[in-house]
Amino acid sequence: MPGNRPKLAAITTVYRKHSHTQHIVDRYLEGYGWNGTHHHPEMDLIALYVDQVGADDLSRDRATRFPAMKIYPTIREALTCGTSKLAVDGVVVVGEHGDYAKTPKGQVQYPRYRFFEEIAAVFRSSGRSVPMFNDKHLSWNWEWARKMYDTSKELGFAYMAGSSLAVTWRIPPVEFPADARVREALCICYGGVDSYDFHGLETIQCMVERRKGGETGVKWLQAYRGEKFWDACRDNVWPRELMNAALCRSHTLTPARAGFNDIFPSFDQMRRLAKDPVAYRYEHSDGLKCTMMLMNGLVRDFNFAAHLEGGVKPFSTQMYLPMPDGRATMANFFSPLCNNMEKMFLSGKPTYPIERTLLTTGLTAAGVDSLYAGQVRVDTPHLAIEYRAPAESTYWRT
Amino acid sequence: MAPKLTRRTFLETATAVPALAQARVRPKRIAIVATIFRLQSHAQHIGDRFIVGYPFAGEWHKPNTQVVSMYVDQKPANDLSGDRARDFGFEVYPTIAGAMCCGGSRLAVDAVLIIGEHGEYPRNEKGQVLYPRYEFFDQVAKVFEAGGRAVPVYNDKALSYSFEKARTMRDTARRLKFPMLAGSSLPVTWRLPELELPLGCEIDDALMVGTGGSDAMDFHALEAMQCMLERRKGGERGVKSVQLIEGDAVWQAGEQGRWSKDLLRSALSRSDNLKGLTETDGRTQDMVGTGVLPTLVKDPWAYFIEYRDGLKATLLMLTDAVGDFNFAVKLKGQAEIQATQFFLSPDPNVTYSACLASKIERMIETGVAPYAVERTLLVSGILESCLDSRVKGHALVETPHLAVAYQAPRESQFCRS
What we know:
Chain A is of the alpha/beta class. Chain A has eleven helices and 16 strands. Helix content of chain A is 31%, strand content 22%.
């Protein structure tokens, strides 16, 4: 029934081609391929706020083509649709991309916390809260992220966040066995610090959170970069066998020898190919050790491997992103992300816990801190975050 | 009850020998017979997997094989065969017989890979590139006959541009009793999602949408569709007629219900590579719903295939609209259309050919082809007859010669580990 369709507001930084906002909001407006049909979400995105409108802006084009969606000059007006009270049933926050200042540590100060605070103010003044999705990590600032989480609990609204990596296709399509005992896990991926490192951390976390005993939080983290990365690699600070398994899941392994298209690199060849590599090594409270590696120049995809107790060989898969950098034209990994949000907006219940992203938000900030402090080990007592993985798998396989 | 010893469990048991014993197993000696061996040519990216190994099931798998000889028909400036031979200790011979016999007078290899894709060869009036696969195969078979011994043969892609030649190849393999595997990577690559039709299913309608020119990419699309349809009830019994139409007639046929818009919408919903407005501003599109296809696609081709058991299937090559290969099917008695993408993993690794290499390796190891060469024989013939239809003014072409019958493998063959 049309009357029962949830109404959504999207609060965004910038709406240009291939920005996260374009990928996410377009899927609500245009629909997207899902379960073998062109799916239109059973809800209406009626209000949009865009923080930065540049020459390449698409929001005006979208509002013209989809007149049911109105653009508002403030977050409050978007949420209230110009009235005095909250007038939507769900909020999508996309604070990725756009021109924002960097911190001295190199973090882009995307205004997710500011957006959240303004939204929460409307919730409070309206005496009513509605489900919210926050794209990527909660904030570059741990204290703010923690406050966002606490406020969501205080106001009691359904809150989801995070990356597509947790929900996209896996090649092969395998789920981390529930209640597995796991000693070591790692992800080899690419991209920058305070950017794709978060995706690599979510890649690991969406798997290992299913281990026996559930998530217990993280005790410490140490970053390695450049020469220190290679020293650690040579000293087997993390298992080489898992690196090899992860690299064998890649589709974009740079050929180490001219004239070959797919050849496994030696250690020295890896060292020549991977430019300024970064690793975040961290230990969970229950003893599990994980390593997230950015190896630019060696791969352009996200590959996971873990040592499971009782397993003969490493457990491994690729979290597959059809990337619109020439490999695809559509970033369809946003389709399962939107689909999970939709489920929350329809049911009022998150399909996976916000605590996952709270933890990976804290790990991202800890990684940045460790690098900034000269690659020292940083204790993370604030990341004693416990939660249970959802019983049901939420990655894309239909 | 004791577990039944199937061929698979036997092989698993048989391969679970101690490492020491395994190390003593002599590597299978392989000859590669290629049109050209340059970077990213089929011969290079498939052949190298038997030289340096390939990623498989989460490991860098080193087949117990040794490429001992090569024949390369064309050696342009970017030829790599000489480098490979020098680096890996084998010879490039000036003749196919020389490669098969490693310069001696008798067959000296355990398997032959014929990879006749890429290289400069003329096209015939149907637009087919005249790759000399039949001629290569014929020379291979002559060595087998002369020595009274034959070994497994893999033939990349279509058997031949000519069905008559293709059938002769299959018949020769039968007569000389050697296992033969052929075809494209598409039937064995990853599927997004993992759709496999139940063996013995009943199919109402099927459609494939693909990209690229003829006759290169249409073969891949037709073979991908065939590997799904061959699983239907009664098994494959061959094709009754085909027709290829072009241009506005393709859209008119859609309006008339000759191909299903619902199936096309479903197939396109699996694409990661829609073109047009998606390239302009990134948007997702329901191209069937918006009606954009006739203005977007300059040169659509539709291949209609009617099977002898009554099944009708369609391939649409819509290069201006889509950049990948997607299949949709409606099974009898099911309301939902099912669809999947045959995933062609990106450059440079093109790991889909690792999926294919594992099938070739299995044939070399076991002496049994994991799926029937008749699939590739039939698809070779379907494509030739479709192109015949085109040169005959897009007429319907009866295809009594395509009464090719075979059974699909019981076990799924696409990559899922």
